[in-house]
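Board notes (copied after class):
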Amino acid sequence: MSAAPKPTAPAPRERWFQPRRSGFRWEQEGLDHLRGLMPGTEPYRAWATFQFTGASGRINECDVLIAVPGGIYLLELKGHPGRVMNHGDTWQFHGDDRVRTLRNPLHLTDLKAKELKGQLERGVHRASTAHRQPACRRAAARPGRAGRCCPLCRRSPR
């Protein structure tokens, strides 16, 4: 009688979940870049271009949520060209022909991360399990740029 087959790790394609492609070319390019950085090993996972409804009833659109050994990160992708400067409440993108000022995306991403953490905590509570809830951190990233604020960008590509 032969031994039962041992379970194996899922295929790398199952580590990246994206229900739909982004409607923005630059954002999809950023997602593709991050996907290329994903190791094919445990515990790395990513969910891109999804929505969830928070306890407040607010619909939250998310660029990408990644699970890495250091925790769970909700990333907001920005694709504006040029050099970026953080001025607290605003970000300034200094391009070749102009300066563009936007509200700091970390504020809204922080709110989304807190709402998502609440969803995870409620799910764990409903399941009546003793699992430790993961911390859900927020970050804004410009994939492929010199910045290394994304946990996946801190490592070299596979």
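Comment from the instructor: The first strand starts at residue 16 and ends at 17. The chain has one domain: 16-141.
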